[in-house]
Design a protein that fits this description.
309 residues, alpha+beta, five-stranded antiparallel sheet, binds ligand Q0T
Amino acid sequence: PSGAVPAGPAAPVLDGYAHVYSGKVRDLYAPLDDAGAPRDDLLLLVASDRISAFDFVLDTPVPDKGEVLTRMSLWWFEQLADLVPNHVVSTDVPDAVRGRAVLVRRLEMLPVECVARAYLTGGGLREYRADGTVSGLTLPEGLTDGSRFPEPLFTPSTKAPEGQHDEPMSYAEVEAAVGPSLAARARDLTTRILARGNEIAQARGIIVADTKVEFGVEADELVLADEVLTPDSSRFWPADQWEPGHPQPSFDKEFVREWLLSRASGWDKASGEAPPSLPDDVLERTRAKYVEAYERLTGETFRPRGADR
Ligand SMILES: CCOC(=O)Cn1cc(-c2ncnc(N)c2C#N)cn1
């Protein structure tokens, strides 16, 4: 395919597992059965230490990022267990991915990126400025970058092929894709997950501006899959710096973005070329932000379990 999206480091080979699919920063495997064939009832979801910025997967991993975000997602699954069942089976995973992989039930996934937004920014802001709506929903006048919505909005999108941007989906298109009942359930759950996420996160100094969740279906019930309320699936903003009217600083990616846009990087974003490698101090400060978000949210000290990889 054209475009400068780098292939990124190949997914590691895992004994006893078949590689199924790689996203920008995560890899999916199927466990092999005794006959060496991929099982069809389980998957291994592995979070790498890769970080993406400005739509590029950077070539310098952030130490412990995969483990911190896996542990954060597992914690959120627990916090949300009263609201929605999830796909988690176990964290008994190979040493090579210890701490940053989860064994999950393989589900029939909804063909919808279930996005909810509590604040106006990014693609939603562009749409609002163009025609006063977000995903077909009419909004009050006078909103600006970073404005908080009275209630989280359901703004679903398609699952675009690798390397392309997701396209907004109207609610009617979601109903056509999954039926009115599952569409209503998905909208209700996605907005409640973000509302609950902000109740918990804002009490700990973090705004979750928006989030993307994925659901599978099991016995006509929606099951929360993928990762949930992490800085990779959501926009995390430091609550004490929130000020509508301009782009908000990212809780976790601000150091990476600032350095890449600074003269020090020698990178010209407009060139379309892949960004340069990040210096160690930017990697370390970014790692510290992921650890800080985890410790603030969970109240637990982050202790790496993963073997030195
Ligand atoms: C590389 C990472 O890609 C993804 O996580 C997106 N994705 C999720 C599935 C999935 N498919 C069946 N059952 C599941 N429980 C899941 C999950 N999670 C497929 N792609």
